[in-house]
Structures are given as structure tokens and as C-alpha cells.
Amino acid sequence: MSNHHRPEPESYASMRARALEALLVEKGIITTDSIDAVVQAYEDDIGPRNGARVVARAWVDPQFKARLLADGRAAVAELGLASGQGAELLVVENTADTHNLIVCTLCSCYPAGLLGLPPKWYKDFAYRSRAVIEPRSVLSEFGTELPDQVQVRVWDSTAELRYMVLPERPAGTDGLSEDELVELVSRDSMIGVVKVPSPAGAA
Ligand code: FE
Predict the structure, then answer these.
(1) Which residue, 49, 153, 151, 144, is CA-closest to 92?
(2) Are 70 and 92 in contact, with CB atoms under 8 Å apart?
(3) I need a surface site. Which of 98, 105, 162, 189 has the fewest CB within 10 A?
(4) Does 80 have pLDDT greater than 70?
(5) Which entry of 11, 14, 109, 177 is annotated as an active-site residue?
(6) Domain of residue 34, residue span
(7) pLDDT tens sequence across 92-145
């Protein structure tokens, strides 16, 4: 795995934000709950939606998909997006034969420009270590059971190179528009811990 990976020291902006948050809470101007709500909005909606747009476009446009797999950074830039922090982006495709999973074993490197803030579990030591050692067990705990013949590949992110999973397009979605497909794509499917399920009622 990467040997040039270093932990990212807390930035001045991050320290400043924490100090400001502490002051606003102390003065009673905001509550930590309201801050959590904003963070939750980023995690659930704003961030992953960018990645979902990329996935849906790749599902409907084979030429875009080819460009995305060849040069992720350039392809997402076509949609006005970036993986974040100027890092390179490698998009790895899940197929019937191969399932990809992303992790940052050292800290929490993540394609934040596409997926928003990483979930807490992504930053936990348990996920960071176990995703590499026993990925099938980790996947199983997310409810993802893969046949033995499916190869599992684990990609260790770094500050310079971020990964995103291009999940498999589920069955029963042939009639859906690109916008409707966007709604199906979850954050966790782009980390690779789950698949995108077929829409309810689909064959
Ligand atoms: Fe990291």
C-alpha cells in the first residue's frame, strides 16, 4: 500500500473553526445540535449528490464512463466537480466479477468534493484496519454478501490519490432518467460497502 502517505495535520482553518464553534456555543448563540444538523446535511445530501451525478452520468453515457475510468479527475471536471484538495481521482468499477472497496488506512482521505464529509465509521480504526484484513467480513456487516467467485479489491486512499467506486447499475432501471438514477445512488455505494439496490417494485 502507499508508503508516501502522511497524516494530514489539522489545518489553521480547522483549528479556527473549532475555536469559533466553541465560542458560539459558550455564548449560547448556537448549539452543538444545530452544528451537527449542518454536518448531517453535508453527509446525507450535499456531498454525496455530486458523486451520484457522476455515477448516473456514467450509467447513461458509455463514452463518459470510459473517460471517467481513464482519468477521473478530468471527467468529473466536465461536470464542474473535483475530488477535493487537488488530489488525483481513480474511479474503480464494480462489476459482476469484481467488487471494490475504498478505505484510508492511515487517516481519513476521501473524495470529499464528490461524497461530502466522510462518515464517522470511515475514520474509525476498526474500519481502517479491518477493511484491508477482512474486507468480506466488513462488507457482510453492511449487509453485502458476495459470492466467493467475486473478487474483492481494497483501495487505500492517500492525500494525493482519492478513490471512488462506480457501483453496478441495478436491474430494473432501464426506463429511468438520469435524474431518477441520481436518486438511487447512495454515499455508501460509492465507498463500496453496499451495492445500489434495484428500485422498489422493479423486476
Ligand atoms: Fe488519509
Answers:
(1) 153
(2) no
(3) 98
(4) yes
(5) 109
(6) 12-191
(7) 999 999 999 999 999 999 998 899 889 999 999 999 999 999 999 999 999 999
| Residue ranges with strand state E in the chain | 88-93, 98-103, 151-156, 161-166
As for how many domains the chain has, the answer is: 1
pTM of the model: 0.79
* 3-state SS, residue 74: helix
For residue 144, is it within any domain?
Answer: yes
6 found inside a domain: no
Quote the CA–CA distance of 68 and 33 in Å, as a whole number: 38
Q: How far is the CA of 51 from the centre of ligand 1 (A)?
A: 19
Domain-embedded: residue 196? no
Q: What is the pLDDT of residues 150-168, one digit of tens each?
A: 999 999 998 899 999 999 9
Task: Report residues near ion ligand 1: CB below 5 Å.
Answer: 104, 107, 109
Catalytic residue list contains 2? no
- The answer to whether residues 156 and 2 touch, using CB atoms and an 8 Å cutoff, is yes
CATH of the domain at 31: 3.90.330.10
Is residue 136 in a domain? yes
